[in-house]
Amino acid sequence: MMRSTEILIRDIENLGYDTAFGSSNPEKPNQQLWIYKPGGYPNPIAKVSLILQCRVNTMFNGVGKNQAELLKVLTDYATRGL
Length: 82
What we know:
By secondary structure, the protein is an alpha+beta fold.
C-alpha cells in the first residue's frame, strides 16, 4: 500500500509537474513537497506541508486558474479526512 505522500507525488507528476522535497528551515529538511512548473522552472508554484496533520499551511502561491487539475489534487490532499 502506498503512503499518502507517494500518492500525492504520483498524482502531481502524472499531471506533468516536477516535485522536490524542501523546507524553509534548513535544520529540518524535507518537511514540504515543492511543486514546480514543467521544464526546469526555478521557483516552486506550491509548497505542501508533509508534517502538519491538518495541512493548513498548504500554499498555492503560484497556482493559477489554468492549473485547475493541480489545484484539485492539492485541495483534496489538504482536506482529506476532514
